[in-house]
Structure formats: C-alpha cells, structure tokens
C-alpha cells in the first residue's frame, strides 16, 4: 500500500473491509431484487464483524460481492430486465 493511500485511510479511519460493505447495500433495488440481495448483505456484515480481519477477509468479501452481483444480474435477466446484446456494440455476432 502506498504511503498516501495509507494516510488517507488513517484519516478516514476506514478499513478495506469496511469500505467494501457499502457495495452490499440493497435499499436502492426494486423489492424483488432486494430479497435476492439481502442475504449477501447479512453475510457480509457477519464476516466483517467477525474476529478475523486482513487480506483474506477482504478477498472473501470481494468474492462474495462478485457472487451477489452475478445472482442479482441472473434474476434481472429472468425478469426480462437485461437481454443478451441489448446494449449496442456490447455483443458480437457470435452472442458473446
């Protein structure tokens, strides 16, 4: 970690783990997606409040966040909110 980054975090008193928790908020989502996202938020809080902290805890939370994002997108796709190739230029002719 760069000294500047360390200094900023000390001034703000925010750890990497605490900084990640903001991405688990779900109150901005529509009700059906809130129900999908809530268990991930609860688990993230439980992990963050656990007795361990450090790089592995932070990495675990990052992976949990990635999983949450995938599951929310899967539910969004099921509801018809996201279609493959719906954003112009985002998908080539092979469908990827």
Report what the structure shows.
The protein is mainly α and 96 residues long. It has four helices and no strands. The chain has a domain of 56 residues. Helix 3 runs antiparallel to helix 4. The C terminus is likely disordered.
Number of helices: 4
Give the N-terminus to C-terminus distance in angstroms. 36 Å
The number of E-state strands comes to: 0
Regions with pLDDT < 50 over 5+ consecutive residues? 7-12, 82-96
Q: What shape does the CA trace take?
A: elongated
Global Rg? 17 Å
Mean pLDDT, rounded to whole units? Answer: 77
Largest sheet: none
Structural class: mainly alpha
The helix/strand order is HHHH
Residue fraction in strands: under 5%
Q: Kindly report the oligomeric state of this protein.
A: single chain
Give the fraction of residues assigned to helices. 55-70%
Brief overview:
The protein has 96 residues and is mainly alpha-helical.
